[in-house]
């Protein structure tokens, strides 16, 4: 359905024509489904098609919906081993579309949501997972200095800053009603592993943020970079691997599926693929990284629930999505306690080290 409410698409059409991106000052803008954060539209004019991403209307949390950062990092990665759409312009002129926005290339490919990849053969599923792994490893090898991203975000104390930030954000939503969230807010900062490595991280690297070639198991674009930063690559990888720890009935998980029968690698095999490309510094803290990422996912879901309550949610299923926040937080606390138990079991091995 075309979305024209409170949108000055005529002003956008004039701007795009002036930039040589369309041939005439008229266009249609159709809301794209999917995504809980930034409203996204397919913009068409004649033979030209683009994707427009904008900040949501209404009051939003500080530093959320950072479309300016999305634009910057995708522009920096043009021509790299990390496939991204071409980006054309960024504007904060509210008279054009009603909110800050950027325009990028429309990629004609496949976006898959179900991580069990229904309808595919075992070989096809394995190839899709291998390609996801390859692209993430390539991302973590990006030379941030050469890409002009050395100042993209603060360097060092990544987990401490992330935990503090998501805690602040959670306090502005209904997260405080969750005993698991409250417990994680206290436990996580006290148990951060003393392992630092800094790379460009995506922050939301998952199957449905990848556009695959229409027929080949090849990623042609990585989308949704608003949570990207300079941080620990294994923390980024752990977020991507949450699906191995979450049941399919809860939130986009594969933990309860017959992975061998489906042709989907187990998590250990998947981590080995990554290790062969990039190494696994700090892998002994994997349960901590999983606990942190479940906390962060719960914080995001509580935020979605709050936007739904305020009427500012981008997706129609925001209320149902928000309901998953509490169970995700509970799962995060489970992994925190598992990490704690393992550390205590082997604490005698660290004496004198």
From TrEMBL:
It comes from the Bacteria. Keywords: Plasmid, Transferase. GO terms for molecular function: transferase activity. Signal peptide: none annotated. Residues 29-254 form the Aminoglycoside phosphotransferase domain. This is Aminoglycoside phosphotransferase. Pfam families: APH. Transmembrane segments: none annotated. Coiled coil: none annotated.
